[in-house]
């Protein structure tokens, strides 16, 4: 088996650390693993398959002999350093929004459009976490009957804001328990005991940038510029795993029974749908899991060809790190 030299840029962030864990858990064929981060994090040590690895400072010279570079260090870092990685001969899988809508960069969810990996010119983009989780569930339905319209409300965990977002929620819980003042820094408002219908910046059309990512990315990944998407993204006081209430309109009717059958046969998806026994997906159970989970599958009472369902997936894992590693796995299939 051929082995590859792999670099993780942003290796000390929540997603970067998860990438390292996923690479190890899935036994990715690695000859050498290089961990890269800012100068502040250089020198930190992590274990990989029993070997101690020292984090190196990310520079434009970091990618000599690197075959695959997994980036999760933010859009500005990707724009600055990804071209240097490509110039050095690496294929970049980028987890930021820097290249997602570039027409020359494939945007890939391996369960949905794996063949697009082959269209790369050195960079492959990892979609937004909320889009990934939604499309894993939409794909088997779309293949049975084209989806005309999607209305989605997301309930996004603190992990969507990275390690700092998770820490802020944890700190607020501890402060509340101790009767201390709750500090707000990374979210628009206190997240504990609250819901914030605001993720990323608002656009001129009244939607947030996060919501518009779901619109544009869905069309690109599905290869269907006519599919309509109406999203509302909400931050909720959950540490890990995003949840989404999804309503679709299809060209031909999909019954709940047929939907369960389609979901059950789809990769990366598990059905938990037994309301009589209180069995339905929840972030409590999805956190740390590779698969997404779907349930509450029911007919839309207001629309002839409408269907409602509920999807939950771990934002750090399938919504980011795992999806990136799966893209790398597609790359090395040969």
What does this structure look like?
This protein is α/β, with parallel strands linked by helices and 334 residues long. It has two domains: 4-127 and 320-331, Rossmann fold; 131-314, Dihydrodipicolinate Reductase, domain 2, CATH 3.30.360.10. Helix content is 30%, strand content 24%. The chain is built from eight helices and 14 strands. The chain has a six-stranded parallel sheet with strand order 5-2-1-6-7-8, sandwiched between helices. Strands 10-9-11-14-13-12 form a six-stranded mixed sheet. Strand 6 (68-71), helix 2 (75-87) and strand 7 form a beta-alpha-beta unit. Helix 3 packs across helix 8. It is globular. The N and C termini lie close together (11 Å). The model has no long low-confidence stretch (mean pLDDT 97).
What layout of secondary structure does this protein have?
Blueprint lengths: L3 E6 L4 H12 L4 E8 L7 E4 L2 E4 L1 E2 L10 E4 L3 H13 L3 E4 L28 E3 L3 H16 L2 E10 L5 H16 L31 H14 L5 E8 L6 E9 L5 H9 L4 E3 L11 H4 L5 E8 L6 E8 L3 H15 L3
Parallel strand pairs: 1-2, 1-6, 2-5, 6-7, 7-8, 9-10, 12-13
Antiparallel strand pairs: 3-4, 9-11, 11-14, 13-14
Helix pairs in contact: 1-8, 3-5, 3-8
Gyration radius (Cα, Å) is 20 Å
Straight-line distance between termini = 11 Å
> Which parts are unreliable, with pLDDT below 50 for 5 consecutive residues or more?
none
Q: Could you state the order of secondary-structure elements as H and E?
A: EHEEEEEHEEHEHHEEHEHEEH
CATH topology of the largest domain: Dihydrodipicolinate Reductase, domain 2
Multimeric status of the protein = single chain
Strand content: 15-25%
Helical stretch tally: 8
């Amino acid at each position: 088996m051929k082995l590859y030299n792999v670099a993780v840029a942003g290796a000390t962030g929540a997603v970067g650390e998860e990438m390292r864990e996923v690479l190890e858990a899935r036994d990715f064929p690695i000859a050498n693993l290089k961990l890269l981060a800012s100068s502040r994090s250089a020198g930190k040590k992590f274990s990989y398959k029993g070997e101690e690895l020292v984090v190196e400072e990310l520079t434009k010279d970091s990618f000599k002999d690197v075959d695959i570079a997994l980036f999760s260090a933010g859009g500005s870092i990707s724009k600055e350093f990804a071209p240097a990685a490509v110039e050095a001969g690496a294929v970049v899988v980028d987890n930021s929004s820097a290249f997602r809508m570039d027409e020359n960069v494939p945007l890939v969810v391996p369960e949905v459009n794996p063949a697009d990996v082959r269209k790369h010119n050195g960079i492959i983009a990892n979609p937004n976490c909320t889009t990934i989780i939604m499309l894993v569930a939409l794909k088997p339905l779309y293949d049975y009957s084209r989806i005309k319209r999607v209305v989605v409300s997301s309930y996004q965990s603190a992990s969507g804001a990275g390690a700092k977002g998770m820490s802020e929620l944890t700190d607020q819980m501890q402060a509340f328990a101790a009767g201390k003042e709750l500090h707000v820094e990374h979210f628009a408002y206190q997240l504990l005991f609250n819901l914030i219908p605001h993720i990323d910046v608002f656009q001129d059309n009244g939607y947030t940038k996060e919501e518009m990512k779901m619109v544009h990315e869905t069309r690109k990944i599905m290869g269907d510029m006519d599919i309509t998407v109406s999203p509302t993204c909400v931050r909720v006081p959950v540490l890990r795993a995003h949840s989404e209430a999804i309503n679709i309109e299809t060209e031909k009717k999909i019954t709940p029974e047929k939907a369960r059958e389609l979901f059950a046969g789809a990769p990366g998806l598990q059905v938990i749908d037994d309301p009589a026994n209180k069995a339905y997906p929840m972030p409590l159970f999805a956190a740390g899991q590779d698969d997404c989970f779907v349930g509450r599958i029911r007919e839309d009472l207001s629309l002839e060809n409408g269907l409602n369902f509920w999807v939950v997936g771990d934002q750090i894992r399938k919504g980011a790190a795992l999806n990136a590693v799966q893209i790398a796995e597609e790359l090395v299939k040969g």
